[in-house]
Design brief:
Blueprint (H helix, E strand, L loop, with lengths): L16 H4 L11 H4 L11 E3 L14 E6 L2 E6 L5 E5 L3 H4 L1
Antiparallel strand pairs: 1-2, 2-3, 3-4
Length: 95
C-alpha cells in the first residue's frame, strides 16, 4: 500500500530537498543571517560559543549565550532562543 504524499510536506518549487529541511527553509546557510533579526528565534543549526571571552566578545547576562551561524554571532536568550543582538563580521576572529 502506497501512501505517497500523505502527511508529507512538499518542498517549495525550485527548492533543493536539503535546503527545504533547514530551520529557515530554502535559504542557504550563508544567507540565513540576512533574514534573521533581533526578536527572531535562533534556528537549531546555530553553534554555541561556550568560551566567548576567548574571542574577545563582551560578557553576556546570566541567562544569555552566544551562537554562531556562518560569519554572524548572535547573543541569544537561553530559555526562549530569542535573538537579542547580532554581531556582524566576526568570521575572521572565529576562524
Amino acid at each position: 500500500m502506497c501512501l505517497s504524499g500523505a502527511g508529507a510536506k512538499a518542498a517549495p518549487k525550485g527548492c533543493p530537498p536539503g535546503l527545504a529541511k533547514k530551520a529557515v527553509p530554502c535559504v542557504p546557510p550563508g544567507q540565513v543571517k540576512q533574514s534573521l533579526r533581533v526578536g527572531d528565534k535562533l534556528p537549531s543549526d546555530g553553534i554555541l560559543l561556550d568560551q566567548p571571552d576567548r574571542y574577545g566578545l563582551p560578557r553576556v547576562g546570566q541567562n544569555e549565550s552566544y551562537y554562531r551561524i556562518g560569519d554572524t554571532v548572535f547573543r541569544v536568550d537561553r530559555d526562549t532562543r530569542e535573538i537579542l543582538q547580532l554581531l556582524e563580521a566576526v568570521g575572521a576572529v572565529l576562524n
